[in-house]
Specification:
heterodimer; A: about 325 residues; alpha/beta; 5-stranded parallel sheet; 4-stranded parallel sheet; 11 helices; B: about 425 residues; 9-stranded mixed sheet; about 20% strand; globular; binds zinc ion
Chain lengths: ~325, ~425
């Protein structure tokens, strides 16, 4: 197997080489998006379950498209509205899934550790599509893919992540993945949203936005959970926007080449101004496109695919659907 | 004459044991003379009577029966986790002959008939002395005081809303005032809920890494500080349950030096495990207060060694396997501890030279009993024959499935421990024997 584990739980577990292997495969898959038929038969006859206990339309659609473009059979299990409520054990769920003889499961769950748990108990491959505030590895990979498309080698590059770091699985996956590739990561947000221990994961902490963006090559802006306001984490949207919102004025303090990313969905004029969200520096929709390619690559490699088969821009190994 | 485990003679001798009394372990063999459930005589050397049945202690340590001032037996209301009978069995297997039960049953112990119910069930079982505490507030809702006088008359040995803190300062003040008059302690589960928030593990490196909501030390320290000041102002006796932070140890140390009536307990898990145990998201390491950091472990250990923390208590908190199969953030707080407590402390405190075996036994028996003013925990002439036989050299591996508690949620599964309880006696009758 090219990847050491049958599962993708987090970028913390991947080596630099594994990350690069996934990204190269993703680049190869991306080339087929420009063809008239965007589908390859690699996963034909294999079954993937999309198990979303916490709702997420965007991530689910991205996975679903990736699976369809690989010709997999798909079952969508949207448990957010089903009988699987708090209190029912994941073990029961896991045993049911096991009994259905599937090849792969994509899991989104509000509890940190849920994906790792399924990975331990299931023979099928498990892909973590976000487990609470722990990790969201495919988001991290698609972010890194987008950065590499713009910057090439990330060694020595500076990435600033802005927002609610404490609650963000995206931030954690970014920190692990980026630092493995030699990038420097700075996190910035209100002190109530940046746990002190985050520095020990490998990031630099900065609470002044202008200083945080000054020498950055990339700004990765996180979505603010508006419902958290009630927990007194920050005084309000207006205040947040004044202190940590990325506006054109903020961009004036960056390098001219610095670009802006956001995992979506955006709160316009809270963490990001509309002008920036729609402006020339953002690569937000490229992230979305790359997301499908990254997920295809992960599925392909976890199901035993050989990345060498994809070499040469996917023209040799990856055949179009006849 | 022969001694039989099957038919217990009314009078017998335990010979060839190393007696452990008043914090000291005898260095030469001694004996214990049991007569009608009481200790008729004890001391070094061999007993002079030859007509009595003799139990050969084989050189084992003979110590006072252990006293645990913090257990949850779950009856009534959650008998699928533990009952007074199964909890007593578990206690006996751990060398305990007396326990103080917490009142957060369903319904809670908040009126006198509930106290009597628990005492009756304990009596029926007969494996362990059970001393119930009663709730501070009706329904443990933190609003109205329970009938302290009636509850003490029924047998309550103290008051606590354990499981949750008393957030209302005035209510806690009144509780300490009432309890003072009645001569019993008020036990605090120190946790400021507004600081604890939705935390599920210690706030620090591991909670940040795992993405689990953190329980900061401050939530404990702030409440201990408040309660200590209330104890100072009222003259009441505050007992601090399950101390877990270095800050709490310091607050208690200072208060005691200043003469405030504060006692405190620490659990075996807070003395030995840290937050890195949660790295695989196993709810077997989810407890309240949470496992902290090495510096806290050092501080509570030093506190116990110094006597700032009076005793070891397990906070034995049984939960079903099904509940502990839930994800970490959804699983209940708490671990069982009665059957591993002595060996864990022996391995981590005595074997490492922090405490002598005699000191450990004292902190787990007489000192523990004194915090609640309980009439037990000593091995002395004329006293009750509650004792245990302990092999400090036997090494064993904790197998959760072998526990006598109804629940198996131990954080020590697979751990190698040194020191094993070989037998426990209550009023001269064996309540537990290793291998049976
Ligand atoms: Zn408690």
């Amino acid at each position: 197997m090219i990847l050491r584990s049958k599962d993708l739980i987090g970028l913390e577990d991947l080596s630099r080489e594994e990350i690069l292997t996934i990204l190269e495969a993703a680049e190869a898959f991306r080339t087929i998006f420009d063809r008239p038929v965007r589908k390859v038969p690699i996963m034909r006859g294999r079954t993937v379950v999309n198990f979303f206990v916490e709702p997420s339309t965007r991530t689910r659609i991205s996975f679903e498209l990736a699976e369809k473009r690989l010709s997999a059979d798909i079952v969508n299990f949207d448990a957010s509205n089903s009988s699987l409520k708090k209190g029912e054990t994941l073990r029961d769920t896991a045993e049911n899934i096991q009994a259905m003889k599937i090849d792969m499961i994509v899991v989104r769950h509000s509890s940190p550790g849920a994906a790792a748990y399924l990975g331990r108990v299931l023979k099928a491959s498990v892909i973590n599509a976000g487990d609470g505030a722990h990790e969201h590895p495919t988001q991290g990979l698609l972010d890194i893919m987008t950065m590499r498309q713009r910057l090439g080698d990330l060694a020595g590059r500076k990435v600033t992540i802005i927002g609610d770091i404490a609650q963000s699985r995206v931030a954690r996956s970014n920190i692990y993945g980026l630092t493995k590739l030699g990038a420097e990561v700075t996190v910035c947000g209100p002190p109530t949203m940046v746990p002190a221990a985050i520095a020990r994961l490998g990031a630099t902490v900065e609470h002044d936005l202008k200083r945080a963006v000054a020498d950055a090559d990339v700004l990765n802006i996180l979505r603010i959970q508006l419902e958290r306001q009630s927990q007194m984490v920050f005084p309000g949207n207006r205040e947040y926007h004044l202190m940590f919102g990325v506006t054109e004025e903020v961009l004036r303090h960056t390098k001219p080449s610095c670009f802006v990313m956001h995992p979506g969905p955006m709160n316009r004029d809270v963490e990001i101004s509309s002008a920036v969200a729609d402006g020339p520096r953002q690569v937000i929709l490229e992230q979305v496109t790359n997301g499908v390619a990254v997920r295809m690559a992960v599925i392909y490699l976890l199901s035993g695919g050989d990345p060498r088969q994809l070499g040469g821009g996917a023209r040799t190994g990856v055949r179009e659907e006849e | 004459m022969e001694w039989s485990w099957k038919r217990i003679p009314a009078e017998y001798l335990v010979a060839n044991v190393r007696l452990c009394r008043d914090g000291k372990l005898a260095d030469r063999p001694g004996f214990l003379h049991v007569q009608k459930g009481l200790v008729a005589a004890l001391g070094p050397g061999a007993p002079s009577r030859e007509d009595l049945p003799v139990l050969d202690g084989g050189g084992l340590v003979c110590a006072p029966g252990l006293v645990d001032v913090h257990v949850h037996f779950r009856e009534p209301g959650q008998e699928e986790k533990e009952t007074i009978a199964t909890g007593s069995r578990s206690a006996a297997a751990g060398g305990f002959t007396a326990v103080v039960t917490m009142p957060n049953t369903r319904p809670p112990v908040d009126h006198a008939p509930m106290v009597r119910y628990i005492l009756d069930r304990a009596q029926e079982t007969g494996l362990c002395r059970v001393f119930p505490t009663a709730a501070i507030s009706r329904g443990q809702e933190g609003e109205t005081l329970t009938e302290f006088g009636d509850l003490v008359k029924a047998g309550a040995v103290g008051f606590t809303d354990d499981g949750r803190p008393v957030m209302h300062g005035k209510l806690m003040q009144f509780a300490l005032q009432y309890a003072r008059v009645l001569g019993v302690p008020v036990t605090c589960h120190a946790e400021d809920l507004t600081l604890a928030g939705k935390g599920v593990m210690h706030a620090g490196y591991w909670s940040t890494k795992l993405g689990l909501a953190g329980l900061p030390r401050l939530a404990e320290d702030v409440m201990v500080f408040r309660d200590v000041e209330l104890a100072r102002a009222t003259g009441g006796h505050l007992h601090v349950a399950h101390v877990s932070t270095k800050g709490t140890v310091e607050i208690i140390r200072r208060a005691r030096e200043q003469g405030v009536h504060v006692t405190a307990e620490v659990t075996p898990h807070h003395l030995t495990l840290d937050h890195s145990c949660c790295r695989d998201f196993s709810p077997l390491y989810k407890m309240s207060p949470p496992l902290r950091e090495q510096e806290d472990i050092e501080a509570v250990t030093q506190g116990l060694v110094d006597g700032v923390l009076d005793c070891v208590a397990t906070d034995h908190a049984p939960h079903t396997a099904m509940e502990k199969e839930l994800m970490f953030d959804q699983a209940p707080f708490g671990v069982v501890g009665l059957e591993t407590a002595l060996a864990v402390c022996h391995t981590h405190l005595v074997r490492t030279g922090r405490l002598s075996l005699g000191q450990l036994m004292e902190k787990m028996s007489s000192r523990a009993a004194e915090t609640y003013g309980l009439p037990c925990g000593r091995l002395e002439e004329g006293g009750e024959a509650d004792f245990l036989l302990f092999d400090p050299d036997e090494e064993w591996t904790v197998q959760p499935e072998a526990l006598r508690s109804m629940s198996r949620n131990t954080p020590y599964g697979g751990h190698k421990l040194a020191g094993r309880v070989k037998a426990t006696f209550l009023r001269g009758r064996p309540t537990y024997r290793d291998g049976e």
